[in-house]
């Protein structure tokens, strides 16, 4: 287990997991250093720790605006030092494993990108709150933003992204005036390990939780610290080796991905700081060009009309500074929802079709998004992709999107139905009062984003009746013959476990031969908890869902390929998975990042064929 950063005020030198175990074993309340007695953390009979914070200060809605245009990062002509197959530790690269299949998969012709993880002290969530500290990423323009800069990539064109760690490694003080919760403004760990969720890529570029690094520290699965680490993304399709066609299975193409920090024990805190961003991947079918002359192209809304939206809950203290509770294994459910890093913003739209890529960036809140007009009348839209995977056919006339943590949904809204001056709102009707999971969907809920139709624009985009076919499943007999691994997600002595074990990133819990296929059975036998389970590396298919032992229907939007599987209480899911093209160490974990950080994660290894 990774120790907290020893010399930084953001990261007290106490081993957090040991403190949690001790406090819960004693069964007595304790107070975090610097907090008033009214902010006591106490243990309950269920071993849960509770930190009671007052509500965030109110904010004036619809005064912050999102940009109309989000430009993707442009590639660099060169990197200094030049990329190498083996880690260039002599020039400051962290001690990773060598890039797999680098020359074979086009590494020498890769496009180069650079992202720098940095601190920024003047981010404005809302003008009613003070400018404050975030961690984000900076690209070519040097401006640190959260979410990070937008990356575009295309299948068949390899890229290499150099992730620099330029976060402060020295002690810091909390920003802002004195107050009872001032110490909670300090959180996060200044190491990084950037995961591209859910790229089909080699393990040394996967952002493994134990591969965290800084100029002074290396995780247990790296050989040396470093200032940067190169990730090689060949952008091949799963099934590359199997099909021998030079590209892989086009029905395995991904679309809406996102990159985020995955540092062991600190994923939640570092994402709360802002270390995540969108990565959009295109191919001949979903080409990112609504004017594409190829008959095979879908011509979905593109350019400024293909818009990513990340939703994340946050909590602010009485002075308007973001706070975080790093000790509670149930986490902290924020009462404010940021949209692309802003509170209650406005997005001005043209009267035409938009592709909206929705991401639940966590850490614990679930959403049920509805689009309504100014009189709260529900509007309809078309649902085209789940978890970044285009569905076989669009789900038209939809009224809501439900998202667990890390799930994505692409929807198409046709604003041409509304005259200029129309105001529409995205509202969250999911009732959730604690981090353990959602309660139910209500008739109303808070408005989190305002759309203002303020202009007209040409629209040659479309949403065809057929999108991307699904790869065929094996026959029922072939599925029944596959090996089955059963994973039980549960609470154990106040911490989160898989098959009654805590995470150990140095020891694989499963070893699978490259080219294999398996059934993974995910089980949640406890009452009251929801777990969005993420399996790294390849998309899977839900082939059965059981509730209290009885088979239940799989919702239409979950019948395609997925990489996050929401496991509700008393549920068991059976997932069909394949393991192709690369080898190395990978992860499965709950993407409620609080649960992940408190040990609900495991390592599995893919062995060479």
Explain this structure:
With 609 residues, the protein is mainly β. Helices cover 5% and strands 38% of the residues. The protein has five helices and 41 strands. The strands form nine sheets. Strands 15, 16, 17, 18, 20, 22, 23 and 25 form an eight-stranded mixed sheet that branches. The N terminus is likely disordered.
Outline of the structure:
This protein has 609 residues and is mainly β. The longest helix has 11 residues, at 16-26.
List the helices and strands and how they pair.
Elements (H helix, E strand, L loop, with lengths): L15 H11 L14 E3 L5 E3 L12 E2 L45 E13 L8 E7 L5 E2 L2 E7 L4 E7 L28 E4 L15 E2 L2 E2 L9 E6 L6 H4 L12 E6 L5 H7 L2 E7 L23 E11 L5 E2 L12 E4 L2 E2 L1 E7 L1 E8 L6 E7 L7 E6 L2 E10 L1 E4 L4 E7 L8 E6 L1 E2 L8 E2 L5 E10 L19 H5 L3 E9 L2 E4 L9 E6 L3 E8 L6 E5 L4 E8 L2 E3 L8 E2 L1 E4 L3 E8 L5 E7 L2 H5 L3 E7 L2
Parallel strand pairs: 3-19, 4-8, 7-14, 15-20, 19-29, 30-33, 32-41
Antiparallel strand pairs: 1-2, 4-5, 5-6, 8-12, 9-13, 10-11, 13-14, 15-16, 15-17, 17-18, 20-25, 21-24, 21-26, 22-23, 22-25, 26-29, 27-28, 30-31, 33-39, 34-38, 34-40, 35-36, 35-37, 35-39, 40-41
């Amino acid at each position: 287990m990774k120790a907290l950063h020893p010399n930084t005020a953001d990261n007290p030198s106490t081993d957090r997991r040991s403190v949690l175990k001790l406090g819960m074993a004693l069964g007595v309340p304790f107070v975090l250093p610097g907090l008033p007695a009214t902010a006591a953390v106490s243990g309950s009979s269920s071993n849960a720790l509770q930190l009671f914070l007052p509500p965030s200060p109110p904010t004036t809605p619809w005064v912050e605006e999102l940009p109309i245009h989000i430009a993707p990062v442009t590639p660099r002509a060169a990197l200094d030092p030049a990329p190498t197959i083996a880690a260039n530790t002599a020039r400051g690269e962290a001690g990773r494993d060598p890039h797999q299949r680098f020359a074979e998969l086009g590494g020498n012709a890769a496009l180069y990108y650079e992202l720098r993880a940095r601190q920024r002290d003047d981010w404005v969530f809302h003008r009613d709150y003070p400018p404050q500290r975030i961690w984000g990423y900076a690209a070519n323009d040097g401006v640190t933003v959260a979410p990070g800069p937008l990356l575009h990539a295309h299948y068949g064109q390899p890229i290499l992204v150099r992730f620099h760690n330029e976060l402060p490694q020295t002690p810091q003080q909390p920003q802002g005036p004195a107050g009872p919760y001032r110490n909670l403004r300090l959180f996060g760990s200044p190491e990084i390990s950037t995961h591209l969720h859910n790229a089909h890529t080699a393990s040394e570029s996967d952002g493994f939780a134990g591969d965290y690094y800084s100029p002074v520290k290396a995780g247990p699965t790296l050989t040396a610290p470093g200032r940067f680490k190169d990730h090689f993304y060949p952008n091949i399709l799963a099934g590359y080796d199997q099909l021998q066609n030079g590209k892989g299975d086009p029905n395995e193409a991904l679309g809406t991905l996102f990159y985020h920090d995955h540092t062991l024990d600190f994923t939640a805190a570092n994402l709360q700081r802002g270390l995540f961003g969108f990565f959009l991947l295109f191919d001949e079918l979903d080409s990112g060009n609504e004017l594409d002359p190829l008959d095979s192209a879908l011509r979905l809304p593109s350019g400024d009309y293909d818009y990513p939206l990340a939703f994340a809950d946050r909590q602010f203290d009485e002075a308007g500074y973001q706070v975080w509770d790093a000790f509670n294994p149930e986490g902290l459910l924020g009462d404010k929802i940021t949209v692309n890093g802003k509170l209650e913003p406005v997005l001005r739209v043209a009267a035409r079709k938009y592709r909206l890529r929705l991401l639940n960036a966590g850490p614990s809140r679930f959403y049920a998004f509805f689009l309504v007009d100014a009189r709260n009348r529900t509007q309809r839209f078309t649902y085209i992709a789940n978890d970044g995977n285009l569905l076989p056919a669009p789900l038209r006339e939809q009224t809501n999107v439900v998202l667990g943590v890390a799930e994505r949904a692409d929807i198409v809204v046709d604003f041409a139905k509304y005259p200029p001056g129309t105001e529409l709102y995205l509202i969250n009707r999911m009732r959730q009062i604690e981090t353990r999971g959602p309660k139910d969907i209500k008739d109303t809920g808070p408005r989190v984003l305002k759309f203002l139709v303020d202009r007209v624009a040409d629209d040659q985009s479309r949403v065809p009746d057929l999108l991307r076919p699904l790869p065929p499943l094996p026959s029922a007999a072939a599925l029944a013959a596959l090996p089955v691994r059963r994973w039980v997600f549960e609470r154990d002595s106040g911490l989160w476990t898989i098959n009654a074990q805590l995470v150990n990133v140095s020891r694989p819990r499963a070893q699978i031969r490259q080219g294999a296929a398996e059934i993974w059975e995910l089980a949640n036998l406890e009452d009251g908890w929801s777990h969005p389970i993420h399996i790294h590396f390849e998309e899977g298919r839900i082939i059965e869902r059981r509730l209290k032992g009885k088979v239940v229907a799989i919702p239409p939007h979950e019948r395609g390929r997925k990489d996050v599987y929401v496991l509700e209480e008393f549920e068991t899911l059976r997932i069909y998975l394949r393991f192709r093209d690369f080898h190395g160490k990978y992860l499965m974990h709950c993407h409620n990042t609080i649960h992940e950080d408190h040990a609900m994660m495991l390592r599995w290894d893919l062995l060479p064929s």
